[in-house]
Write a structure and sequence with these properties.
5 strands; DsrEFH-like; 160 residues; alpha/beta
């Protein structure tokens, strides 16, 4: 057997050049908008958290940014916790809530489809994190169309 002589990795080691940015750091021009949609189930994959971080980043780049939670995406915006609401039952349990609250605290808006909230997942508007705006199912398409009309950046996320 060949001998492995390479030193073991340790905390603080670098594996990639994280400072080598290839593209310019794009900032929004005055009046530019962005919409990030979520049609994904909470805790079923990383896309919900990744796109929350992207939405926060878009807002910080100066885009008037909104989040749309529809279909299973509404599960990202409901209050959760154990043993009581707001408690973290395990590390990362409140990642969605914490990031959505941060997004709203920095001046951005979040919309949640009432149909998905009640008909699909059995929750009422009171289950939403404070500050999330419930909308009619017909508003889901119109919100997207308004952003298309305004030439907004749109990040559509759809997972099954």
């Amino acid at each position: 057997m060949p001998a492995v002589t390479q030193e073991k990795h340790k905390d603080g080691d670098f594996f990639v050049d994280y400072e080598d940015k290839v593209f310019e750091d794009v900032k929004a021009e005055p009046g530019q908008k962005a919409l990030v949609t979520f049609h994904t189930v909470a805790f079923e994959g990383s896309i919900g958290l990744v796109n929350m971080l992207n939405a926060i980043r878009l807002a910080r780049k100066g885009f008037e940014t909104s989040i749309l939670l529809y279909g299973p995406g509404v599960t990202l915006g409901i209050q959760r916790g154990f043993p009581t609401l707001g408690d973290a039952a395990f590390p990362g349990h409140q990642n969605f809530a914490d990031n959505l609250k941060k997004f709203m605290a920095e001046g951005s808006k979040i919309y949640a489809c009432r149909f998905a909230l009640q008909a699909l997942y059995g929750h009422g508007e009171a289950a939403l994190l404070p500050g999330i705006i419930p909308i009619a199912p017909q508003d889901v398409l119109d919100l997207k169309l308004l952003h298309v009309r305004d030439n907004a950046v749109i990040v559509d996320t759809w997972t099954l």
